[in-house]
Amino acid sequence: MKILVTGGAGFIGSHTVVALHEAGFEPVIIDNLYNSNLNVLDGIRQITGKDFPFYEIDCNDPEKVRALFEKEKFDGVIHFAAYKAVGESVQKPLNYYENNLISLMVLLRAMKEFDVHNFVFSSSCTVYGQPEKLPVTESTPRQPATSPYGNTKAIAEDIIRDHVYSAPGLKALSLRYFNPIGAHESALIGELPNGVPSNLVPFITQTAAGLRPSLTVFGSDYDTPDGTCIRDFIHVVDLANAHVKALDLLKEKTEADHYDVFNVGTGEGYTVLQLINTFEEVNGVKLNYTVGPRREGDVEKIYAQADKVNHVMKWHAEKTMADALRDAWNWQLKITPQK
Question: Do 144 and 26 share a structural domain?
Fold first, then answer.
């Protein structure tokens, strides 16, 4: 099966390209390189021994997307490409709505025109807002999103669900990720944000490497054991493998108009300070950090119940938070210029 991977040069996308190859799929990568780097393709090549087709295309460009579908005959699409910084989305909501939703609709129209039936969407646990009960299950009511980014994911899920029921033969899954961290164990690919990282772990590793003076922990007065936010941290390699399992599940579904959602997390919640302490312990590094005020748009605590993804999709998280933090640090050491 030939699979289009949008945002395939990004953090989760690049690891998924590797996982797809290892499972016997043929990935084709498109990315506009807004928050990624062409060097990632070299890392993918070194891991897999293969050059995969790459197109520098923005998913918001319907003519270029349509031309790509005309050229390559896809069996499925995994859609990662999106803006994803919670804080930035609060400051620039229109940018997030325009980019994240139009790109989705462009892809769905192209899939319908060219008769592509399998779609896996990169969603997020942010669709739950601040849930009233933990852990969250797929039937947990979606609360109002705490950020425009989270709202784009909730709206996108609704668009996909409605479109599936109007497009005979289309089968789609939305994977609600929790907090992806880590890097490939080879240290050949990892998280490589352009500019100031919006995610916690690359900010930690850049601070530990001396690229940033200190890390700010946003908020210490939450209703948690140490006052910092609680998250469900998942190794990016485990998350990449979930996309392979998602495609396997779609292949099994013979009925038309199939749509479902899955939480993809470990089922364990850890505070930000627990994560920092684990990073220091496994890597033997002291981190310079300070505690600041809360950040607008952040959820206090959230972690998954993973029963559905374990049993229905036959996927289980295999790597620990310590594994992820060790891999993330090895990746940072590889890409940081040595003094």
Answer: yes
Is 83 catalytic? The answer is no
Which positions ≥6 away from 23 have C-beta within 8 Å?
Answer: 244
Q: Give the pLDDT band (50/70/90) at residue 338.
A: low
Q: How many domains does the chain have?
A: 2
Pairing of strands 270-271, 230-231: antiparallel
Same domain, 53 and 35: yes
Q: For residue 114, what is the domain's CATH number?
A: 3.40.50.720
SS3 (DSSP) at 176: strand
In a domain, 15, yes or no: yes
* Mean pLDDT to the nearest integer, 292-320: 95
Integer Cα distance of 155 and 108 in angstroms: 14
Domain boundary among 210, 242, 264: 264
Residue 117: strand, helix, or coil: coil
34-92 pLDDT, tens digit per residue, is: 989 999 999 999 999 999 999 999 999 999 999 999 999 999 999 999 999 888 999 99
- The model's pLDDT over 158-211, given as tens digits with 9 standing for 90+, comes to 999 999 999 888 999 999 999 999 999 999 999 988 888 888 999 999 999 999
Rounded to the nearest 5 degrees, what angle is found at the Cα of 127, between the Cα atoms of 152 and 27? 65
Running DSSP on this structure, what letter comes out for residue 10? S
Catalytic-role residue among 83, 128, 149, 270: 149
DSSP readout, 184-252?
-TTSSSB---SSS-SSHHHHHHHHHTTSSS-EEEE-S-SSSTTSS-EE-EEEHHHHHHHHHHHHHHHHH
What's this model's pTM, rounded to 2 decimal places?
0.96
Question: Residues 62, 9: one domain?
Answer: yes
